Amino acid sequence: MAMLENKRALVIGAASGIGRETACLFAREGADVVVADIQIELGQETCGLIQETGRKGDFVGVDVTDQTSVDSAVAHAAEFLGGIDVLVVTPFVGTAPVLMGLTQADWDRQISVMATGTLFAFQAVIPQMQKQGSGGSMIATSSAHFADYGAMTHPAIIPGYGSGKAAVELLVRSTATLHSPEGIRVNAVMPGFTITPGAVNLMKENGVEDLAMIEAILGHGMPMGSGKPEDVAEGFLFLASDYASYVTGYSLPVDGGSLAGAYGKLAP
Ligand SMILES: NC(=O)c1ccc[n+]([C@@H]2O[C@H](COP(=O)([O-])OP(=O)(O)OC[C@H]3O[C@@H](n4cnc5c(N)ncnc54)[C@H](O)[C@@H]3O)[C@@H](O)[C@H]2O)c1
Fold first, then answer.
1. pTM here?
2. Going by CA atoms, what residue is nearest to atom 11 of ligand 1?
3. 91 CA distance to ligand 1 middle (Å)
């Protein structure tokens, strides 16, 4: 049997990269999926891929930094799908690995897209799941860049990004503590370096021209090399499914061993 047979999923950030692959995998595993993103054309393209699987799919435009926009995207998804069992939140914006050159605008954008956007999505979906009364699974996106395995194990070189992900981590845990008694599981996936349009563009903006160069920088710290969005999507699938029915308040690394390797041990 498919892992998400007849589940109703909203994937925010699904026009590209990890979000797109997650939305498509969910549909192949039996879910109906609403795709939400700020990029309309690419979002509609993902929606077409969902429909090709034979499952119901729809697209709704959303800017996660705007609470009204998130509320109306969630309302649209709940109406189209007849409810929401699974929420995935994956939007991404990057900033350069600098501290002194980090502007307030960059900092605010980073925090609002990654952390505040996740908060707005949780706040909009929780009442819907409460009304349904059958629980649900909400999954945010952290990063192997922020890995608090009880020690400073991560190469903390991107202050804005890392701080945004730290907020996501704490938001996930506290939301799980508050709402898992209602059957709403709350987790995050923690990808390692994954080849997506977002990651590749950010690297290019910072002077890293090609994948070989990225792999040389991260070196032996990635035992299984760079990830593909399809690899990371499988982490979301597990957490969305009933196979994770007793998993909540947790971040699942899907990183090809990055946290075990040197990539996770560069910081002092
Ligand atoms: N790719 C990696 O190496 C990597 C590593 C660790 C964590 N992650 C995390 O995975 C997630 C997905 O990243 P990706 O690499 O697939 O990026 P991506 O840029 O390929 O996709 C991100 C999507 O977010 C959307 N988005 C951006 N701002 C938005 C907004 N305000 N409202 C709605 N949607 C918005 C974009 O339009 C895009 O479709 C991010 O949270 C990222 O931090 C990625």
1. 0.95
2. 90
3. 4
| Residue in 113, 169, 196 to alter for ligand 1 test, most ligand atoms within 8 A of Cβ | 196
pLDDT in tens, 66-84: 999 999 999 999 999 999 9
Q: Dump the DSSP string for 114-127.
A: IIIHHHHHHHHHHH
CB of 191 closer than 6 A to ligand 1?
yes
* Sequence-separated (6 or more) residues with CB below 8 Å from residue 210: none
Which fold does the domain 8-264 belong to in CATH?
Rossmann fold (3.40.50)
Residue 77 is given by DSSP the state: H
Signed CA dihedral, 130, 13, 240, 27: sign only: positive
Residue 161 annotated to the active site: yes
